[in-house]
């Protein structure tokens, strides 16, 4: 493999794979944050022994209106985009616990994948440097992409 093939593999395969793994990891982190926020709200509602709450709802374009919500049933995202289920607060807490376990496993997989891909990038970059010493042709290499 010559310098150009190494560089092409880096650009066309490894960097896109790294970006995808980081993006997926970030999405899982956001989902965990959302579920933690929902758990906090449910626990707060239970502590206050509320039957209804007054809140503001975004109806689009950051335009908010006041709303009163009945909290006997809570809509919870299922993990399938656009599909929600209505659960009682106690059921929602149980569901959140189960979803968090799944999301944490995915988060760990995506994090491990990003680390492994970054290691491959580092190895290929080192190979390019070694080959560059034998071949005067210069190849631009991106530096560490860890975020």
UniProtKB/TrEMBL annotation:
SUPFAM superfamilies in UniProt: Prefoldin
- Under the cellular component aspect of Gene Ontology, which terms does the record hold? mediator complex
Q: What GO terms describe the biological role, i.e. biological process, of this protein?
A: negative regulation of transcription by RNA polymerase II; positive regulation of transcription by RNA polymerase II
Quote one Gene Ontology molecular function term.
Answer: transcription corepressor activity
Top-level taxonomic group: Eukaryota
Against InterPro entries, the record matches this protein to:
Prefoldin, Prefoldin_subunit_alpha, UXT
- What parts of the sequence cross the membrane? none
Question: What PANTHER family has UniProt attached to this entry?
Answer: MEDIATOR OF RNA POLYMERASE II TRANSCRIPTION SUBUNIT 10, PROTEIN UXT
In the record, the note on similarity to other proteins reads: Belongs to the UXT family.
> What is the name listed in the Swiss-Prot or TrEMBL entry for this protein?
Prefoldin subunit alpha
């Amino acid at each position: 493999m010559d310098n150009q093939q190494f560089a092409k593999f880096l650009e066309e395969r490894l960097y896109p794979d790294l970006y995808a793994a980081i993006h997926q990891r970030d999405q899982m982190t956001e989902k965990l944050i959302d579920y933690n926020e929902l758990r906090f709200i449910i626990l707060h509602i239970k502590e206050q022994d509320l039957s209804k709450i007054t809140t503001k709802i975004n109806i689009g374009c950051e335009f908010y209106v006041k709303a009163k919500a009945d909290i006997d049933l809570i809509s919870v995202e299922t993990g399938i985009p656009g599909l929600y289920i209505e659960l009682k607060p106690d059921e929602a807490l149980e569901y959140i616990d189960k979803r968090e376990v799944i999301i944490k496993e995915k988060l760990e997989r995506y994090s491990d994948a990003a680390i492994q891909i970054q290691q491959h990038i580092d190895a290929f970059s080192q190979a390019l440097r070694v080959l560059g010493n034998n071949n005067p042709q210069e190849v631009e290499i991106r530096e560490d992409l860890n975020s």
